[in-house]
Amino acid sequence: MANNNERPFLFQNLPRAEALKELASFCPSGANKDTITAVEAYNMLLETASTLMHHLNAGLSGHGLTQARFRTLFVTYRTGRDNGVSPCELAKIMRVERATITSLVDGLERDGLAIRKPDPEDRRSIKIHLTPRGREVTLALAPKRMKHMMKIISVLSTDECKTLMSILDKLEKSIASQEGTTL
After folding, report:
1. Does 2 score more than 50 pLDDT?
2. Which fold has domain 67-141?
3. Pairwise CA distance, residues 111 & 49, whole Å
4. Cβ contacts of 55 within 8 Å, gap of 6 or more
5. Cβ distance 87 to 126 under 8 Å?
6. 98 pLDDT higher than 90
7. 124, 136 contact by CB (below 8 A)
8. Cβ partners under 8 Å of residue 2, min gap 6
9. Category of 92 on φ-ψ map: left (φ > 0), alpha (ψ -120 to 50) or beta
């Protein structure tokens, strides 16, 4: 049974610098100032990403969508337009597994926002197309989403945005170099 004083495991409950000092025994290289700062930055990144996703999903939920479902609609609209887009291409662009695309498209199809059609150039394949309602929803929400994104990011200057993108790119490369490794 959980202690009533314990906070649930949420990204926003991850430890900050003072608490991290107490966790020093878990650090293989020791808990020097640089290690504590690095772990705190890592945790803040996770916390911010989690908060952002929660915020975006809350805004889209009134439209029966999640960030992932809206992104699928938007990428399908932008990439597929008249010819549709293959699930493989959609997965590659969105950087998710093909099974994730299958699940997302299942939901969009069930809600009448997308449809699977045979690929006229390869009868073994299918293409994802937006329905008229899917296009309507995408075109109605895209400007609102853009305005919302700009509101959030407007606290950063153009130079800060460039620095952030550079840092995130560096982290992406580090993540890619860790593929296949486990905890």
Report:
1. no
2. Arc Repressor Mutant, subunit A (1.10.10)
3. 28
4. 152
5. yes
6. yes
7. no
8. none
9. alpha
Count the Cβ atoms, other than its own, within 10 Å of residue 102: 12
CB 108 within 8 Å of CB 73? yes
DSSP 16: -
* Helix (H/G/I), strand (E/B), else coil: 26: helix
Q: What is the DSSP string of 42-109?
A: HHHHHHHHHHHHHHHHHHHHTTT--HHHHHHHHHHHHHHTTT-B-HHHHHHHHTS-HHHHHHHHHHHH
Nearest to 60 by CA among 50, 48, 73, 69: 69
pLDDT digits (tens, 9 = 90+) for 115-144: 999 998 888 899 999 999 999 999 999 999
Residue 153 corresponds to which tokens in the numbers above? 């990011």
The pairing of beta strand 122-130 with beta strand 114-119: antiparallel
**Residue whose C-alpha is closest to residue 98's, from 58, 77, 119, 125:** 125
pLDDT tops 50 at residue 3: no
Return d(Cα 47, Cα 49) in angstroms, integer: 6
Beta bridge partners of 128: 85, 116
- pTM: predicted TM-score of the whole model, two decimal places: 0.77
pLDDT digits (tens, 9 = 90+) for 73-84: 999 999 977 889
Within 10 Å of residue 182's Cβ, how many Cβ atoms?
Answer: 4
